[in-house]
Amino acid sequence: MKVLWLQAAGCGGCTQSLLGAENRAGVLAQFADAGLELLLHPGLSEASGDEALALLQAAANGELPFDILCVEGALLRGPKGSGRFQLLSGSGRPVIDWVRELAARAQHVIAIGSCTAFGGIISSGENLTDACGLQFDGDQAGGLLGPDFRAAAGLPVINVAGCPVHPGWVVDSLLALALGAFSESELDAWQRPRSYTEQLVHHGCPRNEYYEFKASAEKLSDLGCLMENMGCKGTQANADCNLRPWNGVGSCVRGGFACISCTEPGFEEPGHPFMETPKVAGIPMGLPIDMPKAWFVALAALSKSATPRRVRENSRSDHPLILPGTRKGAPK
Predict the structure, then answer these.
(1) Domain at 2-195, CATH class
(2) For binding [4Fe-4S] cluster 2, which residues are annotated in this chain's numbering (predicted)?
(3) Is 14 assigned to a binding site?
(4) For residues 56 and 98, what is the distance between their CA atoms, to the nearest angstrom?
(5) Cα 12 to chain center, whole Å?
(6) What is the pLDDT of residues 124-136, one digit of tens each?
(7) Does 203 appear as a known binding residue?
(8) What pLDDT does 24 receive?
(9) Is 163 assigned a ligand-binding role in the annotation?
(10) Is the CATH number of domain 199-321 3.10.320.10?
(11) 115 belongs to an annotated ligand binding site
(12) Is 252 flagged in the annotation as binding?
């Protein structure tokens, strides 16, 4: 399968993340082993300048068949729908015109990252550039291609959302398409691959013991749970970041930073500072998914009353002050 990759308005962070994929031979070698050929990527391909433009034009005209269109970055529709806030270098044409033409030729279209899926960071604030995603404008269906868009193979845009996207999510999605093992049932309500959104960031979090006892961090660098005071949305965010961390070791919460739910539409404007938890009467407004408020309040009170001294003291420190005890005798 032949892949075209375009970069629209964004930071290029999703490509940087992809290059950190764990395969020792490199992600391009992994693609080649799966029968995926990267025809063009603005940062990875040898073709550039007129040669790259000729390749794109041939693909848009139908003279160069390809299978998968990957788009990275938000789509700028401004000013006044012209798209001229972002022109493809050397072509004099808006990027959104290229995306529309190429999407009409592709068997599959993939939005790489939350900017391309929903508008993301680029669409925040006053959104003077009229940035949007491929098939969503924030949490509203529509976007550049419209809510009814289907690629030639019958699927809507596949939103591999994240800011940046985890390399494994991109690789898994492309390999599944190459194997013919991807159907619309594999997508969730936001058209994201369920392979990673059927989990919560909370699953596998190294701070789960602190969460269970509601032993909360009070400042940056504390070891405790980041939900109660530090803005963490890990119990609400659909992603498997802590089950398959970046490079096998890293995730936001493992690095001491709250989960900001970057795979979700609208994450860029939570209405409060990222590192603060909004509360009403001392109760966090953002409760774990599917958990009634009354249950959470009752559970939190019970958990705090049973917090071991080790957990309580360690939660307010940047290193363990008290180590777990050692069992005497055989486990029962």
Answers:
(1) alpha beta
(2) 202, 205, 225, 232
(3) yes
(4) 8
(5) 13
(6) 999 999 999 999 9
(7) no
(8) 64
(9) yes
(10) no
(11) yes
(12) no
